[in-house]
Amino acid sequence: LAHHWPVTVCKMIANDCQDPPEYWTIHGLWYDHRLFNTKYIYELHYWPDVLHSSLNRTQFWKHEWDKHGTCAATLQVLNSQKKYFGKALELYKHIDLNRYINELGALFLIFQMTAIKEALTRFYGVTPKIQCLPPEEGEKAQTIGQIEFCFTKELQLRNCTALKGESDPMQADLKLGTEELSVCSDTLPTYYPSQVQDHK
């Protein structure tokens, strides 16, 4: 279950982002083709299309279903659009990342990725995958943009790391436009933007 920070996503590419949500939103529920039907979509204000706010939002949900939902549908618990979107929202509410990060508040102001990662691991009991934009030219801080929580096929939380001898399916980076998110560095300071800034 990938959460992304809308402000960082907007920073990644010139787009029509206007007033992005100021809370962590769903990017997707992905598994390591069926027709898309919007009648199964509900409560998806937690799953907005941050990059294309003025377009038909169902295109983003259709993309998530076509790319990830149809694979996830091999599991009984996710084998329909209604189950897929419903389960993603259920997991999102269960993780409650926004509430926990608000409680961490001061820790996020420290800008130390190791402290943030340790706090999330302690609270959730598993290690999430935290992704950042690398520092821009002349800057020293990476920008936090996405936090992924990994689950077993039984939808139990698990560490987002590969087992010994396995390739890591979670190493794929998110690329939008010319910039991309990658696993955050433990050694770089981390920037947590509160609002979209103008592009240069």
UniProtKB/TrEMBL annotation:
Major site of localization recorded for this protein: endoplasmic reticulum
Localisation: Endoplasmic reticulum lumen; Lysosome lumen; Secreted
Single GO BP term: RNA catabolic process
Entry annotated with the keyword Lyase: yes
GO molecular function: hydrolase activity; ribonuclease T2 activity; RNA binding
Record's keyword annotation contains Lipoprotein: no
Catalyzed reactions: a guanylyl-uridine-RNA = a 3'-end 2',3'-cyclophospho-GMP-RNA + a 5'-end dephospho-uridine-RNA; an adenylyl-uridine-RNA = a 3'-end 2',3'-cyclophospho-AMP-RNA + a 5'-end dephospho-uridine-RNA
InterPro entries hit by this protein: RNase_T2-like, RNase_T2-like_sf, RNase_T2_His_AS_2
Gene3D superfamilies per UniProt: Ribonuclease T2-like
One Gene Ontology term, aspect cellular component: endoplasmic reticulum lumen
SUPFAM superfamilies, A to Z: Ribonuclease Rh-like
Domain of life the protein comes from: Eukaryota
UniProt keyword list: Disulfide bond, Endonuclease, Endoplasmic reticulum, Glycoprotein, Hydrolase, Lyase, Lysosome, Nuclease, Secreted
Pfam families listed in its UniProt record: Ribonuclease_T2 (PF00445)
Family membership: Belongs to the RNase T2 family.
Name assigned to this protein: Uncharacterized protein
Organism: Calidris pygmaea (Spoon-billed sandpiper)
Taxonomic placement: Eukaryota, Metazoa, Chordata, Craniata, Vertebrata
